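Anyone opening a protein record will find just a pair of labelled lines. With that in mind, the following record should read easily:
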Amino acid sequence: MPGGRIEPAARVTGPPPLLWLAWLCAGATITYVVGAPFWAADYPMMTDFPFHTASSAVLRHYTDADWHFREQFVFQMFAVPYVTLYAVSAIFMVVLPPVVATKLAAALLLSLLPIGLMVLCWGLRKSPLLGLWGLVPVWGVLTHWGFINFVAAMGLFAMALGLALRIVDRPSVKLQGALIAVLILLFFTHVFRFPFAVGMIVVVGLVMRDRVESIKGLFIPAGVAIALFLAWWLTRTELLASEIRWVWPPQWSRMSDASGYVSNIFIGDEDTEMFRRTTLLFALTAAALLAIAIARLRSWPKGGWVVPAHVIVGVAILVSLGLYLILPMEIGAWWYVFPREITAALFLVPALLPNLPRKTWAHLGFVIWTAVGVAPLAELVTDAHREFSTTTVHFREIIRELPKAPKLLYLVYDQQGSRAQNSPYVHLPAYAQAERGGWLSFHFAQFGASPFRYRDPTDPNAVVPPKTPVRWEWSPQLFQLDQHGDFFDWFLIRRVSSPGSLFASDPSIRRVAHFENWWLYHRPRGPTGPPSETP
C-alpha cells in the first residue's frame, strides 16, 4: 500500500526485556567478531594496514615540524577522497598511540557491515536483527588485504539503500538528512562505490514511483549526491580516471573461483571449511525462516510494496555479480579489482531473508543462533592474528633502534612466517613512519591514489624520496644501492641470510642491529642535506 502503515508482521510482540536482551546480545556479538582479531595482535595481520596507520599519522602530525611530513606531502582530499579511515584514526591519535588508534578506527568502519545491513533490512520492513549475518564477510579476503575503505563502503551502500527504501515508504525530513549524511560519508570512504549508491537511489525512485504516494523525498538526497559526484569528476586525479579494460565476453569461469576470492585467507583448508560451515548454518536459517513464512503466511509484509523492494536489492546483487564477471584484475595501479565484487554481492544476500516471527523470544533466539554460527569464524581469525603477533616481536625490537624521522629504505625478502595467503610483512616497516615520522623508500603517496601525494620535487620546499618502480615493494631483488639508496640513511631488511653484500660498494654503511631475520644498517651523514638524526 502506498506509503501506508507498517503491517502487523513488522511489529514485535512479547516481553520488552527479551527484545532489549536480543539487542544487547547483538551488540556484544558485533563487538567480539569485529574487535577480537584487532586486540589479539600488536599489529593486525593485514597487508595494507601498516600504510593505513602511517597515512593516518601524516594527517595527525602534518604540522609537527620534527615529523617532516609537510616537506613531503600535499593534500588532495577531494580529488582522492579516501579520507574517513585516516581522519577517524588521526582524531583517535590525539590520545592514543598510532597503531591502537588505527585499529579502533578500522574496527568502527568494519562494524558498518552488519550495521548497514541492519538498516537495509529495516528499510525492507523487516527486523534489523537479520542484518547480523553481515558479520560473515567482515574478516574475509578483502579485509586481510587491508581494503578497509572498500569493506566499509559496502556497509554504507547497504545503509543508503535501506534509507532510500524507508524514505519512499514513510517520508520524513530526518530520513532525508540521514541519507544525505550517509552518502557524503560514503563518498569520503570509497568514491568508486559512491556512484553505485546514487544509481540505486535512482532505481528505487523509478521502481517505486507508482507504488507509493510520492518519491519526492529522494530528490534532495539524489541531487546533493549527483552534484558532489560531478564536482569530484571535474577535479579527480589522472589515476582515478584510468581507462577500464573491460573483459568481454563475461568470464563465466570466474564463478568456480568465487569461494576462493571470498574465503581463501590462510594457507591450508581450515578457513575454507569454516566458511563452508558458516554458509551451511546460514542456509539452514534461511530454510527455517522460509518454512515459517510459508506456514504462517505472515512473516513477509503484505501489499504491493514488498516484492519490488526486494527486487531492487536483487538488482544490486546482480550488478555486483556482473561486475565480478567483466571487470579486470587491475585498473591502473589498483589491484585485485574484480574479486572484490563477489563479496559485495554475497554481502547483500541476507537482506532477502524472510522476516523473523513477531515474538520477542524468537528475536533473542535468532541472535543467539547467529552468534553461535559466526563466532567460530572469528575465533579462527583471532588465533591466526595472535600467532602472527609472535612473529613480529623482533620487528618491534629493531624499530626501537631507529631515530626520530629517519630516512628509511626497507626491503622485505622473506615473506614467510604467518598463516596468511597474502604477505602481512611486505609493508610492515611503514609502522616506523607511523610512530617516528620521516621518509620511506616506498609509499602509497607516489601513486597519487591517496588523500595526499608527494610534493613536486622541483618545489624548493620539497624533500621527497625518489620514485620507485611499479611493484617495487614486492620485488626487493630490484634494489641497487647506487640507483636507489643515495637518499637514505637507514636500511631495514627482512631476510634470512645477511644482506651485507647489498651495501658492499659503500663501506660507510654499517650494521647497527640484527634481530632474527630483521637487519638494520645505517649510513652516517654530515650536517648537509635533509635532517636525519642518529641514535
